[in-house]
């Protein structure tokens, strides 16, 4: 019975994952970002840049397959010496990030603007009103205030550097997680992360999407150490402390970022029903497990209590907690329009005087909208929202209101102006960026999709994390793939671990090899 329950649980996770993930992969492949030339849907067009990239990529593939000597050179460079090549490529990518930030560091709008203005004028009435309603952004404001005080600057460039460092720190923890699981796959992790970082302009947006990444990656790494590393128990206790602290930090930065922790708990509980688990549990191992759980819980609980104390007693900006927007508001907003931000709902939250009236109105609107859609209409809406939530490989770049302040056209001259053309709303090469980012996203999704034979426990954790991400965004405010950024560590690590299996399956499908898939 225990064995059947365990197998059923694993099959359920795998089946649900491929249902959601199959939709996402299809939607990504059919995305408007892949239209060559004039693109009526996105309002931008690709240029000779995309054409050159495609010609080079196709030429390399043809030459690699047609000429054995060239194929051997590629294998020597990218496979036999992959550690050196991947490491060099990752370092070059970081250098590119530095150049990008130096060339492009404009003032950013939407919620990011409010945080930055509060660093300069915390006593402004509009800022106090904003943070009273959106107290979820208070932790990042206090973090940025601490940095601004420590380094004596509030410049956009400074906080872009901070965002770059935090994003790259996430990549480091992801690669370390892969090293714990299978050190032979570290070069693959570096290749995949280099592709991500090279096409991730969100490093110039100092907001919770990117700032939460290192905490998510860090607690996933700590879990890997606890569950898979053959390390001394003293180091595992240290990892347990790190797990608790980083979960708490992720929660304060972006509460929805603890989805991976929920996935870890559920998959570990699934292991407990197995008879083999209890048969292999020695007294010493059981003691270490209990000790790690206690240490992690105390560290996380202590950090949570301390964090709440800081928020409750902070005197940097005066807020009225009674003005806070209830969680049901985001559910109501998530079922309106395309499932994203609703300006009318946000205005209503500012107008209603009490927390109860705001919650009651949001519940009323949620039920009204649900009834209006009907059962089949709601299902159709969810499918459409899944596309909106996950198909865009640019992660909804430039799609927020007033994304880049003080102008939508790139200014300046020379090389810096050329770089800005890729990321400004009316830049001449915005279509090229969207095309290349979409192509990278599709490659990552396809790698993950064809890794279906992998039933490793950690793989199931990552799959369940992605399921949780999709379900959360379907139920709450979504409508754009920017909200997926907080879950990218799961995508990137799963893509790395799936790469070899997927490559073998793809080779078989296209007749490149004759031998069976290796599991």
UniProtKB/TrEMBL annotation:
Keyword presence, Membrane: yes
Keyword Transmembrane helix on entry: yes
Transmembrane regions: 12-36, 48-67, 88-108, 161-181, 188-205, 211-228, 258-274, 286-306, 435-453, 460-476, 482-499
Record keywords, A-Z: Membrane, Transmembrane, Transmembrane helix
Highest taxon, organism lineage: Bacteria
Protein name: TIGR03766 family XrtG-associated glycosyltransferase
